[in-house]
Write a structure and sequence with these properties.
Helix content is about 30%, strand content about 20%. Strands 1-2-3 form a 3-stranded antiparallel beta sheet, with no helix packed on it. Strands 4-5 form a two-stranded antiparallel sheet. It is α+β, with helices and mostly antiparallel strands and about 140 residues long.
Length: about 140
């Protein structure tokens, strides 16, 4: 059986969107080698074409804002996994999610970033180092 992966739907949506953009560029008279090895003006046109696309998508409807310069000008961002290396193993502790207030770490149930001495972000280790006044060196 095939392994299920969260990113598979996003990859399929990306392939579909790029294929539609390539077809649109072809319909506008661009040759395959012009789109494959884009110069600056072709890249600008390609971005313009992509900004005008919308598809139903496997992961949900996909569209783009009218302003291609706006941060996150797509309609959503995928989640990022937060992992910590402990004892040589990668441990997933949470995900970075986009919220109305910006980005936030959403910890998995019972998981936290572990710090020195098995401390967590909620219970950080004490500051066991000297502090210096601003502008001074220790």
């Amino acid at each position: 059986s095939l392994e299920g992966r969260l990113e598979a739907g996003y990859a399929a949506d990306t392939i579909c969107l790029i294929a539609k953009a390539f077809n649109a560029m072809h319909d506008l008279g661009y040759a395959v080698n012009e789109v494959h090895g884009m110069n600056s003006s072709t890249y600008q046109k390609f971005n313009s074409v992509v900004q005008g696309l919308s598809i139903p998508g496997l992961t949900g409807a996909i569209s783009f804002a009218n302003d291609p310069e706006r941060h996150g000008s797509g309609d959503r961002i995928v989640q990022f996994t937060v992992e910590q290396i402990l004892g040589g193993s990668y441990i997933q502790v949470g995900n970075i999610m986009e919220t109305a207030q910006g980005f936030a770490v959403e910890y998995l149930q019972g998981k936290h970033m572990q710090q020195f001495g098995n401390r967590t972000s909620d219970d950080p280790p004490p500051a066991e180092f000297p502090t210096c006044a601003f502008g001074q060196a220790y």
